[in-house]
Amino acid sequence: MQSVSVPDEVQLLMESYKEQAQSAFSDHLSGIYVYGSIALGAFASGKSDIDFLTVFQNEPTREDLTSIQNIHKRLQRTNPLAKRMDGMYLSAEHLGKTNQQIPSYIYVADGKVRQGYWDINAVTWWTVKHHGIPVYGPEPAELELSIGWDNVVDAMNINLNVYWNKRAEYAALYLVDELLADAVCTLSRILYTLECKEIGSKVQATQYALHTLPAHWHSILTDALQIRQGEKRKIGLVSRWRRAKETQAFIRFIIQHCNNRHMLTSIKA
Fold first, then answer.
1. pLDDT at residue number 4
2. Distance of CA 190 to CAs 23, 33, 173, 183, 214, Å?
3. What b/e sequence results for 82-91 when a residue is b if at least 16 CB atoms lie within 10 Å of its CB, and e otherwise?
4. Is residue 164 part of a domain?
5. How confident is the model at residue 265 (pLDDT cuts 50, 70, 90)?
6. Which one of 8-12, 110-114, 209-213, 228-232 scores highest in mean pLDDT?
7. 135 and 158 share a domain?
8. Exposure string for 23-57, b = 16+ CB within 10 A, e = fewer
9. Residue 267 included in any domain
10. Cα 188 to Cα 70, 109, 133, 200, 217, distances in angstroms
11. Last residue in a domain, options 110, 142, 174
C-alpha cells in the first residue's frame, strides 16, 4: 500500500482485510482499492468513512457472501475502525457501469453487509481510476474503466437539477446542523468539480467556494465548515431558521449559477 497517502490506522486495517480476503477468495480476487476521502487526502480521523472497492474475476456467489459477512464481523471484533468501512464487491465486468446497468451486488455500509445498490456513479469511477489507492491488484489506471469527464459532468447535472432541485423545496431540513453542512459542502463540491474540472474533497471545495463566491455566502459557508469540523454552538430558533433559509437560498443559487456558467441542461424528474 502507499503508506504516504494512507493514515497508519487505515493501513493496518486494510492490510488485515487484504490478508483475510486473499485467504477467502484466492481463486478469483482481482483487486482491492481505497478511494473517497482517503484517496483525496482529506481523511478525518474519527469521522471519515473508509471507502473501498473489491473486485472479483467473476460474479460473487452465495458462499462468497457468507465469507464477506464473516470477514467484516471478524474485523469489527478486533478493530472498531472496521465499522466505518463502506465498500462494494463487484465483478470485473461491472466496473465503470451504473446501478441501472448491472444486477444488485454485495456492499457494506454502516458496518453491515447487504445486497442491493450502493455508491456507483461517475464520480466514484473517476475517483477510483485517477485517485484510487491499490491495496491489492494492478494500478487503478490499468483497470478497464471507460469513464470520461463528460460522464462526470452529466452526473453533476442530474445531481443538481433533480436531487438538489427537490431538496431546495424544504428549508426545514436545514434546521439540522448535519443536513445543513452536507448540503452546503456538497453543493460547493459540485461547483468545484465543474469549475476546476477535477474531484476534490468537500472541505477543499467549500474553502474554494469561500474564496470565489460573493461575500453574501461567506457566513453560511463558514458555518458549514465549522459544523463539518465538529464545532458545536448554541443557536436560537430564530437564528437557526434564518440559517436554514439561507441554506435553501444557497442551494438555489448554486443550481442557477452552475446551469448558467456551464450550460447544463435542465432535467425534469
1. 40
2. 40, 24, 20, 11, 17
3. bebbbbbbbb
4. yes
5. low
6. 209-213
7. no
8. ebbeeebbbbbbbbbbbbeebeeeebbbbbbbbbe
9. no
10. 39, 25, 25, 10, 11
11. 142
| Region 22-50 average pLDDT | 88
Please answer whether residues 207 and 225 qualify as being in contact, where contact means their C-beta atoms are separated by less than 8 angstroms.
yes
Indicate the length of the chain as a whole number.
Answer: 269
Rounded CA gap, 151 and 122, in Å? 6
**Number of other CB atoms surrounding residue 199 within 10 Å:** 21
Q: Where are the alpha helices (DSSP H) in the chain?
A: 8-24, 62-78, 122-131, 149-158, 165-167, 177-196, 202-212, 218-228, 237-262
| pLDDT higher at 232 or 151 | 151
Write down which residue in 113, 142, 171 finishes a domain: 142
Percent of the chain surpassing pLDDT 90: 75
- Is 103:62 a contact under the CB 8 Å cutoff? no
Please tell me the distance from the alpha carbon of residue 188 to that of residue 250, in angstroms, as a whole number. 10
Rg of the chain's alpha carbons, rounded to an integer? 20
| Cβ atoms within 10 Å, residue 116 | 10
pLDDT of residue 230: 80
Look up the domain containing 64 and give its range.
8-142
Q: State yes or no: pLDDT of 237 exceeds 80.
A: no
Query: What's the one-letter identity of residue 128?
Result: V
Distance CA 249, CA 167 (A): 11
Q: Give me the number of domains the chain comprises.
A: 2
Residues contacting residue 78 through CB under 8 Å, at least 6 positions apart: 16
Residue position matching grid coordinates 477510483: 128
In a domain, 2, yes or no: no
Pick from 167, 158, 165, 150: which is nearest to 256 by CA? 165
